[in-house]
Amino acid sequence: MNTTEKEYIEGFKAYLSVEKNFSEHTVDAYSSDIISFILWLDNTSCINADFNKLREYLHFIQRFDYKKTTVARKTASIRTFYKYLFRERYIDSNPALSLSAPKRPKSLPKFLTPDEIEKILNNIKIDTPAGFRNRVILELLWATGMRVSELSNLNFGDLNLEENEIKVFGKGAKERIVLISQRAKDYLLQYINTARKLIAPGYNTGEITENTPLFINSTGFRLQNKTIRKAINEVVERIELPKKVTPHVFRHSFATKLIENGADLRVVQELLGHAGISNTQIYTHISMKHMKDVYESAHPHGGGK
After folding, report:
1. Number of C-alpha atoms within 13 angstroms, CB side, residue 289?
2. What is the pTM of this model?
3. CATH H superfamily, domain 3-87
4. CB 235 within 8 A of CB 120
């Protein structure tokens, strides 16, 4: 890879992070996809690759037996990369406009029951300021359905706790308001008034302004997504919960519970920040499946004991 292509990659990463507001994990995945693609091109410059060359690459990666979701992501990475190159006028036309990805398999998002959520929350060690912070973070994920990137990007100016509201900037920097429960609000206020001041001892975290990060690490800087994921993994492993739990599972659990309790789909769509209602409708399928599972295990003629 030459110096110019490395500059394309760096610009692309900034575009994904700042303008598309993608998570750190997604930025890393997309960048890695494009690096692999450019290395495959070998002596062909990425700005000279045409539609047939892109299709040839997608045909090439089929031999590695990637999951359909992985191939779909790699296709999306290429489409987004060439959209970026075209927008920046590095190329005169976009060869990836008609590039299509294989259909993703329809799988239902994983979610936790309220009892499982409470078990996780109650087993977080809160005897340290950082531990208390982690409890507050998971309380907020469960109470609001925020994406983990949205939560880590919160500033003090986004809080309107008198109205139990938080302003969130989602994908594409779209602004929305999420609501928080009284319990989550109480935990958050405790964190702000006590624990936050003790998280970075010896570091000057500065005067709190509207742009000051709400959640910080041990050196006083904004908390990163990976720290939140690590905190979840630690408690899930400790309580031996037989499920893979990520921050996004909290989001799925939030939406599923709302639907099960009769919330309007449009309201859930607004709270989650979904661009289209189709993304929200999948939670009705989750609720129906859950209802059937409960019926089959509890009803004498349902197949359960």
Report:
1. 11
2. 0.64
3. Tyrosine recombinase, N-terminal domain (1.10.150.130)
4. yes
CATH number of this structure's domain 114-298, picked from the four choices 3.40.50.2000, 1.10.443.10, 1.20.120.80, 3.30.300.30: 1.10.443.10
Contact 154, 214 (CB under 8 A): yes
Query: Which residue intervals of the chain bear CATH 1.10.443.10?
Result: 114-298
Closest C-alpha to 82, from 122, 121, 53: 53
Q: Which residues are catalytic?
A: 147, 171, 248, 251, 274, 283
User: How do the pLDDT tens digits run along the chain, 305 residues long?
Assistant: 788 999 999 999 999 999 888 888 999 999 999 999 999 998 889 999 999 999 999 989 988 888 888 888 999 999 999 999 999 999 999 999 988 865 555 566 788 899 999 999 999 999 999 999 999 999 999 999 999 999 999 999 999 999 999 999 987 778 999 999 999 999 999 999 999 999 998 888 778 999 999 999 999 999 998 899 999 999 999 999 988 899 999 999 998 888 888 888 888 898 988 888 877 877 776 656 655 665 566 556 555 54
